[in-house]
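Let us work through a complete example step by step.
Step 1: write down the sequence.
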Amino acid sequence: AQEGWELLRDGEPIGKVPVLARGGHSLVALDPVLELLGLSSEEKGDTLILKGPGGSLQVFPGAAAAMHKGEIIPFMHEVLREGGHWWVDPDSALTLAGRISGPGGGGLSWRGEGYQPRQTQYQAPGQASSVQKPQAPVTPLPGPVSPSSATVRSIRWGKQDFGLRVVLDLSAPVPLKVEPGSGSVTVTIPGLMARGTSGSVSPYPSEIGLSVTQFGDRVVLAFRHNASTVRHFSLEAPFRQVIDFYDPRPLGTSPAPYSPWTGPPEGSIVEEEPPEEVFQPLPQPEQPPERPPRGVRTVVIDAGHGGKDPGAVANGIKEKDINLRVARLMSDILKKEGMRVVLTRSTDVYLQLSQRTNIAVKEDADVFISLHCNALPKGKTAEGVEIYLMALPSDKHAMELALIENRELVEGGLESSEAADKRTRTLLKILGDMQQNVKIEESTSFAEILFRKGESKKLPMRRVAQAPFYVLRGAAMPSVLVEMGFLTNRAEAAKLKNPNYQKQIAEALSSGIVEFLKTSKYN
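Step 2: predict the structure and record it as tokens.
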């Protein structure tokens, strides 16, 4: 370990913290930071739980993220557990400490040999700064696809009289798109490659959240906020994009918190709707063909849920039936395209999540696609097709959906949410490394093509997103999970049980699979 750095509060030293050099960057010991600030931590198995007046959060060894109330806090580097300490990058240590310290936890910074601050200090929401307009902290963004591509050199954050200002420093003019929405601002930048962690760390996470995600040939920066007004403009010489957030309130105060749907018991109806439709027995599938000749592509299609697990149940429909019908239609279409198709289930049977991807691995599949239908709590509504790949979640909604889909049926009913949460946390621990894995890039390209094909087939495509879905964990090939629509939306449920609409979905997804596998990279 290097000689320790001084931890400062409002510019005054409060103690030294051990520093460790790893892979060309420095890590600080997190547990001494907590002790100096009067905070506590507890190890439970392979998880470190941080506790303070501002709540608690979880840190996992080997992961480039922590989890706080269902939200993912991305780090610059993976967490290291070594020599009796938990080591994190210095700026993330300040962010974590500030999160759990509450209103009095601001004004934190470092001083030490070799320290290069990405943020001048952590400033707790609502706390007056003890210094006069500090230099805006800088967070490096992922690198470019090629040296000739335009890049975002840095993201600078600064407190202003009106609120918060974010500046994107660009290496050259680039046709980026800024889309303000309700509680969000999305910046889309072509020609960049997201490497390492999927998001950059906001120095003001209680007021402005930020995630950075690679989608095919573009990067999307998603800002979350509760500001009263958002303004944006461009500057030249050098090239910059400025986003101003006026009077940002703490995140979570408005709108009302999102309530995840935890799934009704089998046979129940979410709303008072017409009696449940009885589906005719599905025809028996053909036996899967022999191993394909050289050059023939293998597609594994997973019809989610099944047997004793109906999935979402609403508006007289069981999710498991829709999933299987679309899977069977896709199988017929893809076989006509000369592909070998394997269904994880061809009848109404129950399979564990791990069994589904084991089939894909055993069959040496070129792609894996898992079909599902979505649902929301009573009083909430949404529609459209969502496509997910397994990575650090894009947002809280994606995380909550993963927690729901990761639950299994056990003897006596649905397993506890705690068991599903443990399974999800196991995935989070490995996702720091997986973010740099080529599988993420391939799955992203796969999802993007499916999304475009859905649009061309006039499907209500909602978004491409990412979350730690257990059913995608063991797949060594490009893999996605498709939520085909919301059964709790009466109009969309009516479409989903319509054979013509099922065929429309099957054609769109099959067309995307064919195009993806015919790209030069996979020939």
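Step 3: interpret the result. Residues 20 and 26 are 6 Å apart (CA to CA).
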